[in-house]
Predict the 3D structure of the following.
Amino acid sequence: MNKKHSRRAWALITAAVVAPCVAVLPTEAATMPFTDIKNSGSEAELYKAVSELYGLGIVFGTTSTTFSPYQQLTRGEAAYFLAEALKLDTKNVENPGFNDVPTSHTYYGHIAALATQGIIQKGTNYNPNNYMKRSQMAKILTLGFNLQQATTLSAPFADFTEDVETNQYIQTLLNYGITEGTSSTTFSPYMDIGRGQMALFLYRTLQKNDNHLYIISVE
């Protein structure tokens, strides 16, 4: 099989492992209520991402007119964003038993839904107010959207984690073109992720889902 056909076959195989039910991006963006993102220059893609995701109810602002794209994303907010993007049932859920996520918690249903799906691990605490790290983001997106997980590391990052599985999640997002490094040689896996960054990564993943999640580079 030649290289061209191999890439096509790989893409078709990947298309078969998408999440069973995810949000579909609208053809036209909803009215954008947030004034702290510009629809031009370096923020143009971010504007489109937040506008469309907000229209679908996947993301929310910090106020009625601000999204705070450069504010750090909490683990609770990340659970909400991802569960809504995956269209998970957040009402009829099994209690995962986190001590710090009572049933009265704002994000209880979303956190419980992710735990039920095995996207996040059950344990003593979830730490919903802690900030989401870039490596954690890579894991929940890979598992949530059932992406074809990388088996080898090809990125030239000198700061990969000591955990092989975590590194594979990072490489997976790189293979799909969903994210990139913070420099040519670093990924910064323990850096906090911003609200705008998470919106961008979700938007790009949903776009690729519409196009059958084609991998843009083959290891």
